[in-house]
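Students often ask what a holo structure prediction actually looks like on paper. The answer is less mysterious than it sounds. You provide the chain, you provide the ligand, and the output is a string of discrete structure tokens encoding the 3D arrangement of the protein together with zinc ion.
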Amino acid sequence: MPVDPRRLIRIIEPRLGEMVAATRELVEMESPSFSKAEVDRLGRVLQAKFEALGGAIRWHPGGRFGNHLEVDFKASLETRRRAKPIMLLGHFDTVYDLGTLRKTPFRATKDRLFGPGTLDMKCGIVMMMAAIRALAETGGLPRAVTVLLNTDEEVGSESSRPVTEKLARQAEAVFVLEPAQGAQGALKTARKGVGNYHVKVTGRAAHSGVDFDKGRSAIVELARQIERIAGFTDIKRGLTVNAGVIRGGTRTNVVAAEAEADIDVRIAKMKDARLIEKKFRGLRAVDRGCKLEVRGGLNRPPMERTRDIAALFAKARQIAGELGWELKEAATGGGSDGNFTAALSVPTLDGMGAVGEGAHSEHESVLLAELPRRTALLAAMIAAV
Ligand SMILES: [Zn+2]
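The corresponding structure tokens follow.
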């Protein structure tokens, strides 16, 4: 049951001030992934806000991280209640340690909102609420909506992943309120998959002056392995392998007994997961006196641009067109929880959140002018799918 996006934007636009105030409230409650107490406190504030909109709350235990918040909204019309819900997906943890707010407080200028977590993705949560409220006022929610806000997205979504996947399987489509891409605010219709590997070499320590030949250098061995690992990169396939951290050795006059590397892997195609896994497991020590251990694997599968995703984007593009702007799409190397839902073949549109720049940095900010129309687009998409 489509709703005219122009009608939605007329409702939303006058509420920009309220949306700014709500974003401020959320940003001023710091919520680093590893600070469970603070994250849970913010969770309770979000619960109250979603309850006020008429949502039914359900908490999912987050273990050492904050608890994950599920909010279910029923369709207003009896006839629409059997349709699958639209899932709105987001997170309320941030990458910023407690105290960051003192150095970079929330700040609103004429055209931007600054502050830790504004763009990624507290403003996106405010957009969800504003979209649901606007729809409720245009004759009621046209269909059921399930909101899932997790607390561990910035640290790999380990405990929220099963919840995300379970709710996504029940949904018609998933909209992820992660920031849009770039200053033009493109939606993300493809994301690379992300893997992490850990390679550890154990050699044999020896005095570099007295017993050099008795030693087996783990550092030399690791250096050789890194050369091989770097060779796994295949830019044309969209496959990159980055040895981002290496450690090893104790003193210059000791042949190193241990060395290790942490490696980030990105893949564009699901079939490359097996390829890269085989390559890592196939690594063998060059120096037989050294032992090689490989751990790790794929964390987030790639979000591939399927026909369903393309169709969903076409719909979004059409609605944006009705609002007078040309919506773009983009592929990104970064992963999000949208990778999990897309991998289940549930049509997923990512980057439906705020437009801005500087996520995960001290100049993180949101563009105010984009907020009303992006929120109207979100609301119209909930109605249109
Ligand atoms: Zn995020």
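DSSP finds eleven helices and 18 strands in the chain.
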